[in-house]
Amino acid sequence: MRIEKHPILDFKRGARVRFFFEGREVEGFEGETIAAALHAAGIKVLRHSVKLERPRGFFCAVGKCSSCLMEVDGVPNVFSCTTPIREGMQVRRQKGRGRLDLAAGSGPSPEAGER
Amino acid sequence: MKAGEFLIIGGGPAGLMAALAASEFGVESLIIDENQAPGGQLVKQTHMFFGSKAERAGTRGFEIGLELQQELSTRGIKIETQASAVGYYPDGTVAVMQNERVWPLKPRAILVATGASENFVSFPGSDLPGVYGAGAVQTLMNVYGIRPGNQVLMVGSGNIGLIVSYQLMQAGVSVKAVIEGLPKIGGYLVHASKIARAGVPILTRHTILEASGKDQVERAVIARIDENWQPVSGSQSILEVDTVCLAVGLSPLTEILWQAGCQMYHVPELGGQVAWHDELMMTSVPGIFTAGDVTGIEEASTAMLEGELAGLGAAKYLKGESKELQCRIDDTACRLASLRAGPFGQKAREGKCKLAECRR
Fold first, then answer.
1. What is the DSSP secondary-structure string of B153-221?
2. Which CATH number does the domain housing residue A34 bear?
3. Chain A partners of B98 at a C-beta cutoff of 8 Å?
4. Which of B34, B60, B99 sits opposite A63 (nearest CB)?
């Protein structure tokens, strides 16, 4: 699915990044979002809807429509269309509204708040 | 993160131009943008712009974005990326979230240049993976270099639908058809001709009845429609496509303007609810400016000029009047008017007139 030759654009891809989708290793390039890297790997179904459990992919790709919400490193409701991939990241399809495992202390890693 | 005097929410064509214009008169700006890189929709536009040299005509959209960023960094104007304005407080504080941390910023003037989001149309199967907004398709192929699919049905023949169809072909994707509900092609003839010459049928008075497939789009059913927008029986045809691209218009992203209590009006010609603004793009709330698609869906070139006006307006608001400033304002206003002067600017002209009347 990756474009290798383009009449106008020259795609300078970053370093290779390995992450996991449903426990399976997927490779993308640094700077790519989760949804983009998964799409390049042929994965279009990113979650299942709340009531009818219908398959959902991304729609807007700019973090507005919430169609692409996934579970990332145990945290549900992450915009996979705007969140960049990271080495070793664990990405899963979200079922319904997702599950918040507060007791186990799931949440963003402490260093995420620093800058 | 420090707000400076002038906080610009949205680093697209309007926001970037506003910062540059304001800096000419000594206004210190901070631009915040929620994306990984600034430039707004310019980053995905591979076509050359129209207009005159002053509007950077003949330059491709993404190159304009890079040029503007270069000028900003030369002038030392800061851009904070992956930073979202998540709230406006009555004392003028804007809450900005970056890396899961919230920064309360209190600038003396604000520009809301948040752009627009894509409209959706509902039909059976419209929630299937493979039904994507035109902007999403552009991001995927022009920013990340990834094909959205192999066979595409384009819904909508406005400029976005036409341009994205051409871009899909450049990326090696087959565009099966462009369909349009209206009896006439919506966008510029020059864009329509390019794809028609390449053999893509542009079907006016056609609609999509459904998309179907197991876990993703595998086909779409289209049909001709009559004067009452009802499908004509027997006119259905099935297209083998894995992608349905929706290019059915945009709606302004006005949340911050609503929160700030700006007077809002519904102007269909501008794409929905927009904030009233004066000639210098200032809303009904003193010190809060607005520019670009958020104040009426138009093009990047008009957004750039509106942004420039807003930047000059902020300079007048913060630093006071001067002869030099007034000259710049008159010049920019004149260029904006001439850009909207043609038949394709008619809708925007009418919308802006209506909006101006709203508060009289």
1. EEE--SHHHHHHHHHHHHTT-EEEEEEESSSS--S-HHHHHHHHHTT--EEESEEEEEEE-SSS--EEE
2. 3.10.20.440
3. 115
4. B34
Tell me which fold the domain B120-246 belongs to: FAD/NAD(P)-binding domain (3.50.50)
Given CB atoms, is B136 within the 8 Å cutoff of chain A?
yes
Tell whether B129 lies on the interface with A, counting CB pairs under 8 A: yes
Give the residue extent of every domain in chain B. Answer: 6-117+250-357, 120-246
* Residue written as token pair 């006119």: B235
Taking only the tens place, the pLDDT of each residue in A78-106 is: 999 999 999 999 999 999 988 877 655 55
Q: In this complex, which of B98, B170, B215 lies closest to A6 when CB atoms are compared?
A: B170
B284 touches A: beta carbon within 8 Å: no
B129 vs A57, A84, A114: nearest CB? A57
Kindly provide the ipTM of the predicted complex, given to two decimals.
Answer: 0.88
Chain A partners of B34 at a C-beta cutoff of 8 Å? 63, 82
- Find the CB nearest B117 among A39, A60, A84: A60
Say if residues B101 and B214 touch (Cβ distance below 8 Å): no
How does pLDDT run across A24-72, given as a tens digit for each residue? 999 999 999 999 999 999 999 999 999 999 999 999 998 889 999 999 9
Q: In chain A, what residues touch B146 (CB-CB under 8 Å)?
A: 1-3, 36, 39-40
Could you give the CA distance from residue B31 to residue B74 in angstroms, rounded to a whole number? 15
Virtual CA dihedral for B223, B224, B229, B230, nearest 10 degrees? -60
pTM for the full predicted model? 0.89
B101–chain A Cβ distance below 8 A for any pair: yes
Q: Is the C-alpha dihedral spanning B276, B279, B283, B285 positive or negative?
A: negative
Query: What is the distance in angstroms between the Cα of B47 and the nearest Cα belonging to chain A?
Result: 9
The answer to whether B340 and B349 have CB atoms below 8 angstroms apart is yes
CATH superfamily of B6-117+250-357: FAD/NAD(P)-binding domain (3.50.50.60)
